[in-house]
Amino acid sequence: MAIQSHINPFLNLEYMQNENENKYFDRKSAKIKPADLAPLISAFANADGGTIVIGISDKSRRLEGINSVGEERVNGLIAARKDCCKPMPQCDEEFLEIENEEGQQDRLLLLHVQKSIDQIIRTSDDRTYLRIGDKTKELRGEDLINLEYAKSTRHFEDEINRDATLEDLDEELLREYRHRLDADESTDWQVLNARGFIKKVDDRDYLTNAAVLLFARNIAKFYPNCRVRFLRYEGDSAKTGTRINIIRDKSIELPLLRIIDAAREFIATQLREFTMLDVREGKFRVVPEYPDFAWLEGIVNAVTHREYAMSGNFIKVSMYDDRLEVESPGRLPNIVTLENIKETRYSRNPRISRVMTEFGWVRELNEGVNRIYSDMAEFFLDEPVYSENGETLKLVLKNNIVMRRMRRELYALNNVGISVWRQLDYMEQAILAYILNRGNASRAQLAAYVGKSDNTVRTRLNNLMKRKLIKSKGNKYDPNRTYEAGPAVVE
């Protein structure tokens, strides 16, 4: 029977002994002192977690085992996370039975260190480490501050801005803010102070970064990275040099309370429109290439939740023939992951988020990512794609422009006619609309779409083919047979 971890089956004996150490795995001799494990435990916990295999020499990779050091030392190694780290990280220990280099029955000790979500794990001497590749790096200065931002133990929005004063803020925005809070009779200072946007340091009042980001009259003076840059490309890729294909480049530099409205107004002028068959009404209507909520929510989220501590980085909206991309500085915050992004919400900038909600973005902020998915599906478009690349979060909305252009050129959708449409039952209408909007579809896709059995769908398809509204591609016994628009809807 293969020797492998039950907690992480990927770690078998061959891997643990022969594989190079990496971001998630390290090996140590059982002779190591418990205190010397602390930096590695801290590093794994502050990164994405990892496993320390004890009992294999990290230099020679000899299978030494742990029995020779005695139970007291083994217990000390297990207790290192409690005795030598603060706060104590989550960690599971596991023993694996092996035969050591001397041919004797022995054990390996595996310490599975879990990722710390909202705490920074330090060693008992107040040092902080992070696992980067196969190295354990001590963090100091700006690197440490950035980790504190990432773990939400420090918020950039709450730190003071030593240069800005009340005179640098937009009076109109402040007046509207007071009104929304039903505090018209209060002064700007009173409202900002009550909401935590003013902090006293050495007996002097300072505005916080959040206050300036939200209300500054000239945002570029303080945060030149507070902008949305829109790039429109000709084609489906970005080219450089003599082949550069940028046909529109616009930067929007405004305080947060103005930048979304400005971005929405401008980007709306850049979006194209298409004719689409409405399943419910049986009519053709003009629709934008992306649902309004989908692309606007992507920008709202970027503005509200981006990492403003990353100087020099800005929000970038790139428009190609076949997709729209929204790139935001900073990875997903705290407990949000690519897997749970549809259901989980967490604000990196809670004060900014609250004010954005109070200024009327509550619908966008509350309905969230889940509706982006549903709206894209309603438009017969592919699911949105979120990804993390380095320190950037990207949202990609695909518009099926190639499919739509092909259908526009090959099929005259309105040749179906309302009279013919009304002769079809609701299921035939749904199937025909799906095929016309998608270009083609298999029987399995259609059965899943209408929620009916394969036989029921087959009957409707045969009826549509008799009317020459659709035609098939492939042998009728082929499970991958597809259906597309027929002669009755071709120009």
UniProtKB/TrEMBL annotation:
<feature type="domain" description="Schlafen AlbA-2">
    <location>
        <begin position="21"/>
        <end position="139"/>
    </location>
</feature>
<dbReference type="InterPro" id="IPR038475">
    <property type="entry name" value="RecG_C_sf"/>
</dbReference>
<dbReference type="InterPro" id="IPR038461">
    <property type="entry name" value="Schlafen_AlbA_2_dom_sf"/>
</dbReference>
<dbReference type="GO" id="GO:0004386">
    <property type="term" value="F:helicase activity"/>
</dbReference>
<dbReference type="Pfam" id="PF13412">
    <property type="entry name" value="HTH_24"/>
</dbReference>
<dbReference type="InterPro" id="IPR036388">
    <property type="entry name" value="WH-like_DNA-bd_sf"/>
</dbReference>
<protein>
    <submittedName>
        <fullName>ATP-dependent DNA helicase RecG</fullName>
    </submittedName>
</protein>
<dbReference type="InterPro" id="IPR007421">
    <property type="entry name" value="Schlafen_AlbA_2_dom"/>
</dbReference>
<dbReference type="Pfam" id="PF13749">
    <property type="entry name" value="HATPase_c_4"/>
</dbReference>
<keyword id="KW-0347">Helicase</keyword>
<keyword id="KW-0547">Nucleotide-binding</keyword>
<keyword id="KW-0067">ATP-binding</keyword>
<dbReference type="InterPro" id="IPR036390">
    <property type="entry name" value="WH_DNA-bd_sf"/>
</dbReference>
<dbReference type="Pfam" id="PF04326">
    <property type="entry name" value="SLFN_AlbA_2"/>
</dbReference>
<keyword id="KW-0378">Hydrolase</keyword>
